[in-house]
Automatic annotation (TrEMBL):
GO CC terms: plasma membrane
Phylogenetic placement of the source organism: Bacteria, Bacillati, Actinomycetota, Actinomycetes, Micromonosporales
One function term, GO molecular function aspect: ATP hydrolysis activity
InterPro entries: AAA+_ATPase (IPR003593), ABC_transporter-like_ATP-bd (IPR003439), ABC_transporter-like_CS (IPR017871), ACT-like_dom_sf (IPR045865), MetN_ABC (IPR041701), MetN_ABC_transporter-like (IPR050086), NIL_domain (IPR018449), P-loop_NTPase (IPR027417)
Sorted UniProt keywords: Amino-acid transport, ATP-binding, Cell membrane, Membrane, Nucleotide-binding, Translocase, Transport
Signal peptide span: none
Source species: Actinoplanes lutulentus
Protein name: D-methionine transport system ATP-binding protein
Function noted in UniProt: Part of the ABC transporter FtsEX involved in cellular division. Has ATPase activity.
Amino acid sequence: MIEIRGLRKTYRSRKQSVNAVDNVDLTVGEGEVYGVLGQSGAGKSTLLRCVNMLERPDTGTVAVDGVELTALGGKRLRIARHGIGMIHQHFALLSSRTVAGNVAFALEVTGAPRAERRARVAELLELVGLSGRADAYPSQLSGGQKQRVGIARALAARPKVLLSDEATSALDPETTDSILRLLLDLNRRLGLTILLITHEMTVVKRICTSAAVMRDGKFVESGRVADLLRRDSELARDLFPLDGPSSVDGSAVLDVTVSGDDADKPLLAEVARRFDTDVRILAGHVETLAATRAGRWRIAVPTAASEDAADFLRKSGAQVGVAS
């Protein structure tokens, strides 16, 4: 659905140049929720704006739904953008228009007839849970309600792809949770492909099937969340930080990561039984992510049994490493 190859975008001034996006490749499959995670200045927003050509890359190609946007310009590009919706961090609503008027604006741009606009606006406001707020103005809405208006507006032209630019970073945790539930519901009900950028690990945990970690304009790692959890990835460590001790007298301290069905198997109890040894859980937890169950533990196993325990856990599908 989204194919990016060799994307570069450099900003230049008299004194310096900054590689905001540096030779990035990205594939987002149809119906996927893909998260790009990184701190401020990593290049996430520039990458997102290159997807719909709000920023034209210096080199590389961007294709959405089989159409190479980097080869288009003028009217052809404007028409192609109708298939890409975008929601913003600070809502970007028109203060002089009502909720219904804000959503209708996106349809006015496409030239939809008035009757069609009216019916579509009503449909969208019901979809995002705002059917009773059509005549309200943005100043009368909460942050979560404003973002729901933004989502309805982004969906007005029936896009196949939805881009999310830090859509929850201005919201409190409870409202963030409700917006993420809405996005996941829209993904499942409408078959939307969603590409989002965020600096919040909670967003990746809740709704992303795939993710990339971006730093200094490059992807440090990328792939399906379930696959990243199966190896000693930066994402796995950030999703499940372990704050237990890294050394215990007389024991080997191991970090164990599991995903899928393995997350609910009594693997640690089986180690204790199989090798007649103690297993101490120093830290860890199991959670349900958007696409899979996953867990990570830091355990202490008596040194004499540690190699056998680690080998058994690896053969059982776990990722095992020495704590550091």
